[in-house]
């Protein structure tokens, strides 16, 4: 793994801890009940949950935001989620009936973070000298990726997956809009990326730019 970047296995998904001096940014929080696993991991690296100052959600699926409630309550960390996914999580039953698809159904069953600050495309978070937020819709309307120019890595959430080891388009069943996803991947292909960090797969670092360009075309 990259220096100061920790992949942490939580319930249902992998989260990332970005350790920048005294501040820790948590990217995604697993399903409900993941807090205990995060605490145990932090203890192993000599830190505690109070060091987590920021929780960034790559998107609003339950395996990514379920643990946000308890971890933000313990740490007082600020929670960041793209407004398009906050909006999606406010969906009502009648909207689901009108648009009966996996995305809306999952959103109806998922509890939104209580006080999420809207994060937007182009925002730069104060992590590793600047961690860029890219709004990359497709898997969900408010999916984001986090790009570190200094570390040459990108955290992609569920915008990408690995199939037989290769970098692949997101899971079509659980994704809202595959055309949007392709356009979002094209944006990633323009970045200087060495390592792709996924939520459900091991990192990819063979020839990341080439793999992204191939998918986007
Ligand atoms: Zn997802
Ligand atoms: Zn996921």
Structure description:
The chain is an alpha/beta fold and 217 residues long. The protein has a single domain, classed as Metallo-beta-lactamase, Chain A. Helix content is 29%, strand content 26%. It has eight helices and 13 strands. It has a six-stranded mixed β-sheet. Helix 7 runs antiparallel to helix 8. The radius of gyration is 16 Å and the shape is globular. The structure holds zinc ion (2 copies). One zinc ion (ZN) binds next to helix 2. The site of one zinc ion has 5 residues, from loops.
Outline the low-pLDDT stretches: none
Question: How many strand units?
Answer: 13
Q: How many structural domains are formed by the residues?
A: 1
In the CATH hierarchy, the architecture is 4-Layer Sandwich
Mean pLDDT: 95
Spatial gap, N to C terminus: 29 Å
Judged by helices, strands and strand pairing, the structural class is alpha/beta
Task: Tell me the name of the CATH homologous superfamily.
Answer: Ribonuclease Z/Hydroxyacylglutathione hydrolase-like
Write the layout of secondary structure elements.
Layout lengths: L4 E5 L4 E7 L2 E5 L7 H10 L7 E5 L5 H4 L2 H8 L2 E4 L1 H7 L3 H6 L3 H7 L7 E3 L5 E2 L5 E5 L8 E5 L4 E5 L3 E3 L2 E3 L9 H12 L5 E4 L9 H9 L1
Parallel strand pairs: 3-4, 4-5, 5-6, 10-13
Antiparallel strand pairs: 1-2, 2-3, 7-8, 8-9, 9-10, 11-12
Helix pairs in contact: 7-8
Bound molecules: zinc ion (2 copies).
């Amino acid at each position: 793994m990259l220096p100061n970047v920790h992949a942490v296995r939580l319930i249902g998904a992998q989260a990332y801890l970005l350790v920048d001096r005294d501040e820790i940014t948590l990217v995604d929080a697993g399903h409900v009940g993941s807090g205990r696993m995060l605490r145990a991991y932090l203890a192993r690296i000599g830190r505690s949950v109070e060091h987590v100052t920021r929780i960034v959600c790559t998107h609003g699926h339950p395996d990514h935001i379920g643990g946000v409630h308890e971890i933000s309550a313990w740490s007082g960390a600020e929670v960041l989620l793209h407004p398009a996914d906050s909006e999606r999580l406010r969906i009502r039953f009648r909207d689901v009936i009108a648009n009966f698809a996996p995305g809306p159904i999952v959103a109806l069953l998922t509890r939104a973070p209580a006080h999420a600050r809207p994060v937007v495309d182009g925002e730069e978070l104060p992590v590793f000298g600047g961690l860029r937020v890219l709004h990359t819709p497709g898997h969900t309307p408010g999916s984001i990726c986090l790009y570190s120019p200094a570390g040459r890595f990108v955290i992609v959430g569920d915008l990408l997956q690995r199939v037989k080891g290769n970098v692949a388009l997101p899971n079509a069943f659980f994704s809202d809009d595959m055309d949007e996803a392709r356009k979002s991947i094209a944006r990633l292909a323009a970045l200087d990326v060495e390592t792709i960090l996924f939520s459900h797969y091991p990192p990819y670092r063979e020839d990341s730019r080439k793999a992204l360009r191939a998918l986007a075309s």
